[in-house]
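Chains adopt folds. We examine one example:
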Amino acid sequence: MIIDIIDPKFNHKLNRIDVNATTMSLKTFCSKFLFGGLVFARRDVGRRSYYNSGSSGLSEPGRASHVRVVDLRSDTVTKPGAAMRRAMAEAEVGDDVMGEDPTVNELQKIAADMFGMEAALFVPSGTMSNLIAVMVHCRERGDEMIVGDLSHLHIYEQGGSAQLAGVHATTANTLANGTLDLDQLESKIRHGYPDPHYPRSRLICVENTHNIQGGRVMPLPFLQEVRALADKHGLSVHMDGARLMNAAVALGVSAADILQHTHTVSVCLSKGLGAPVGTVLAGPRDFISRAVRCRKALGGGMRQAGIVAAAGKVSLLQMVKRLQEDHDNARTFAQALQKCEPPLFAVDMAAVETNILRFQIREPALSPAEFCDRMARVEDGEEDALGQGVQVLMYCHFGNSVRAVWHLGISAEDTQLAIRKLQFVARQSLVNKQQRGL
C-alpha cells in the first residue's frame, strides 16, 4: 500500500512510502512519523482546505521534468531571507519575561514609535494579541465588544474572547469595502448598564486591511468617525491591524496617521513583512502593563525571545516599502483575469487595493474547488505549452470565490507564470466544455 506523509498545517505532502516494501519496524515508524506531528493520507483521500471549501494542497508534478510552485495561499508562507536569518543568529538576548531581552525591548520601542503609541509588547501570534487586547479593554466577565460579522477576530480565532475571557460579542454587518455601517454600529451600543439584563459595551474592533473582503483598506474618514462614536459613548477602539503596513503603503501615509483614530493595535510581523513568527500589540503605557500580565496567563511569555524579535526588527525597518511590489503583482494578476479568453472570471478592480485578491468564476461547469485543484497540479500537455510545469496554489474562499495572496516569496516573474497557467487552464476548460457539447 502506498501512503503519503502529510504536514497537517500546510497540507503539503512531505514524503511517500511503500508500507509493504519498507523494512522499518512499526515502533520506529510510529515514533518517527505519527508522534512527530505528521499524519498519513491515502492518495485517494480528499485534502483539507484552509477555509473548508475546496482543496489546494501541493499536488503531483505529473510527468513534467521541471515544476515551478507559485504559492498564493497566504502571505503567512513567507520564509526569512539571508539578512533576517543573520540578524536572528547574531541577536543579543536575555530573559524577556524579566524584561531583560535587549532585542525584544528594542523591537517594542521601534514599534511604539512607528505606530505613534506609548508602548508596545511582543507576543507570539496575532490571535493571542487580539485576545489580550480584548481581555485588557473588557476587564469584567460579561463585558461586550462590537465586531464586524466577517472580521477575522470573530470568525477565525475560535471565539477565544468568549471561551477564555468571558467577553460577549455582538456583530455589525461588514460592508463590501470592509467598513461597518455607522448607524447600525451605534445601535449596537448598550445604554442600559447597570441594568442586570444587559452586558456592558466596552470595545469596538475594526480590521485593517480586511481579510475576508479581499485586503480592503479602511478609509481614514471612516476610522475618524468610529473614534468619534467611541469617544461619545465612552468605548475604546482596537484595530486588528494584522496587515496594517499594507494599508499604510496603499494609502501613502504612516502607520501612526492611521492609528491616531484607535486606542490600541495588533500588527502581525509574520505575514507580508516576512518574519517567521510574532506580533506586536501597542497602545497606552498602562494598557501594555496590563497586557503583560495577560500574555503571561495565556502562556505567551517567552524567554530569550530576541532571536525571533530580531527578525521582527528587520520586518519593520526593511520590509515595509517592498509591500508595494506585492500590491502591484496582485493588480497585474487581476488585470489578467479581466482579459482572459475565454472570459471565465469576474473581478472588481476597484476592490484590488493591496496584496489580497478575490475573484469569481463565471463558468458554472468550473467550480472554485475544481479550478484551484487544476491550478495546483500539472496537467497533460502543460509542459509543452508553457515550457515547464507550473503549480499555482490558491484557496477557495468566502462567498464561493477564489482567494490569492501575494508576498515577498512571489516575484513579478512568478506572477507571469501564474498568469500563463491561468490562461492554460482557461483554454483547457473551453476545450473540455466543447467536447462535452455544452
